[in-house]
Predict the structure.
Amino acid sequence: MNKNLIPAIVGLNALVDIVFGIGGLFLIQSLSSSILTNGFVASIGSLAIIVSTLFIGNNIDRVNKKRAVVWTNLLMLISLIATIICPPNEMIYFFIIADVIIGICSLIANLSLTGSYINWVAKDKLDALVSRTTVFQNVGLILGIAVAMVLIFVGGHVKIFLVISIGIYLLINVLTLNLKYLPTEDKKAVENTESASSIVRVLKELRTDHAAMAFVTINVVNILIQGVFNGLVIYFWGSVDTTFSQIELLLVAYVIGIGLAILLIKRGWLGIYKLTLILLLAVSIDFLWAPNVWNLSAIAGLLMMNTIPVLKQTSLRRLERTDASKHTAHAGVMKFLSSLAIFVCSTFLVGFLQFIGSGAIILPLITLLVIFVYFKNVKYLT
């Protein structure tokens, strides 16, 4: 049963991330036209993950992960309900608080579910579970974009996005209650990420395992470019389509990119990935010089097409090559590093780039970083 429930839960998490995220982006964009403000508020969840990673990691391995997912989903539900019923002029503050709570709780839930697959299935079924989870996650992204498109077309208020998010979290909890938790037989102390010193220790250990370090690094930079773009996309779109009358182009581009990513996962993607990385850089530069809805949509599609397959591949390789007792620690470090990178790039770097010229420079800069990291570590993926 777990082999079906875990992918379904991950898919629903992807769905709710999109619905809640897009609703929040429209709320932020309606209140401020500053890219720095948009980037800061959009990255609040990442800041919460940075802080909570310092204290949570090891405790996850001491508790029943099924209960951890249930209770964190309940906390997220409560935070969303509070945001809905709060006075309209205070919604942004309640949203920020909810975003912090969701950032912390999603870290716990994600580490409990995907950080340690060995608690849910036998090791010989790991490959099948990761592949199925990747497909369901992408389906969840597509469904989330479809739901957002419908809500945008009908002029849905931010509260509608939040109500739908509440319903999804309730469904996730129903499915989670049916999971069968499999405590690991290995009782030796697991690696932890509950303090700065332990994160440093895990990083030092990764430095001696070049393949594992390569997988972690590739994951971090791909999550970084996804997080920065998705956090600022509504701001960028508002700069080229002030009435959002053509927003369907962006949503369709996301769907096409995710669909192509699924195809690349099934058919083999390394050769095409190298080409699309170059295309992504070219389109990012084009958007910098001549921003319009077409090149911004192309960036969205190419970004999904690039990042999703490589994230799946590196995650699987990491799980296969490392001991089960290190899975949660490695996942925690990846969450910490990617969240730190997203927060720094979405606030300090974007603010600096806006000061010297244009915040849109962030897109080609991070694309160059992704290209460098990929070509430096590609040998570990073949």
Remarks:
- DSSP finds 14 helices and no strands in the chain.
